[in-house]
Design a protein that fits this description.
Blueprint (H helix, E strand, L loop, with lengths): L12 H43 L2 E6 L1 E3 L3 E17 L5 E6 L6 E2 L4 E6 L1 H43 L5 H40 L2 E3 L4 E6 L6 E2 L14 E16 H4 L7 E5 L8 E13 L4 E8 L11 E8 L5 E5 L3 E4 L2 E7 L5 E5 L1 E5 L3 E6 L6 E3 L13 E4 L2
Parallel strand pairs: 1-22
Antiparallel strand pairs: 1-21, 2-15, 3-10, 3-14, 4-6, 4-9, 5-8, 6-7, 8-10, 10-13, 11-12, 11-14, 12-13, 15-20, 16-17, 17-18, 19-20
Length: about 400
Amino acid sequence: MTAIARPFQGVPGRRRWLIATLVPIALAVLFLAGYWPRRVAQKRLVAEASAFQAALPQVKVTAAVAVDGGRSLTLPGSLVASRQALVYARATGYVRLWRVDIGDRVHVGDVLAELDTPELDQQFEQARATLKQKDAALEQAIASRDFAKVTAERQDTLFAQSLVAKQDDDQANAQLKVWQANVNAAKADIAAAQASVRELGQLVSFGHVVAPFDGRITQRNIDVGSLVIAGGASGASTSQALFRIEATDPIRVFVQVPQAFAMSVKDGETVGVTVRQVPGRVFDGRVTRTAGSLDPASRTLNVEIDVPNPSGELLGGMFADVTIAVAVAHRVVRVPSSAVITDAHGVRVATVDGVGQVHLVAVARGLDDGREIDLVDGLVGGEQVMVNPGGDVTDGTRVEAVRGP
């Protein structure tokens, strides 16, 4: 039989034992020499990654939500009088008495105050006396013309009978024409004098200051004995309004509608108006007109609304909430109002992607109720948006996103 070779055959037993012991040890050393550096490097990388992760700033994010654009829009508005006017004196004089005070309701033509106008009174009397003089002058001119007419007719008869010279006849007819011209001039003087009397009479009538329309007195700036200067006269720079009058039925409301909803606001549309001082009451109003153009600074449409106010519950200058049914042609994305960054670069939001990188995205504002804002451009919905981005947030930075409410 063929003999099988065995390891360590022919080697003494002690050496065989030594070799059998050293070989595993050598193999273990070689294994450790290759594995251990990689293990140490891996632990170092894990430690560095953990340290880097711990160094990233934590930011609260929330998901941007896409919603339909149609909705009921509530906007702040200001109540103003449908008509308002400052009432000035048309005649210079002193206040003899005033008949109304603030809060009084008046009707068109009601006397608000009476003025003493002594200078105008004298001028009016002088104008009427001048008119009487002109009337007398006209009568005198007519009498002279009639006499000249009779004289001319007699001269014509005598000249036809060759009893007077042609010169005398021509002189008589020329004198008739002169007096006819004098009559015409006297009539023109009377017309001018009558116009002067009417003008001064109108100015004297302005001593009674009257209401231009139905309304309520909101200011009284005069007292008995006050000197008032006619508005628009040479001393108009020193004139002041005697009264302020406002008409508040209907009362007018002005609101600014954002660009995203401007196209859906139509004339005649019914709206609801609420005032905090009248809780539980909704006043019906109607859109009467729109500006037809957006304000380039705020990108809003100025809308005018009329609200019936027969009992005067609504006062000019009040703050109101106006609810209008509006819609947009596309969906909007809703985010917290605090997520919007407005600076020199425009309006933006900070989004965080899946690896924690920040991206600043330009957006267009829509409705903002103070808690949430609708964005009409820039986002599609589903993005992770930083809820409270700091002023130092920059595009491309790394953060650790923490989901918030």
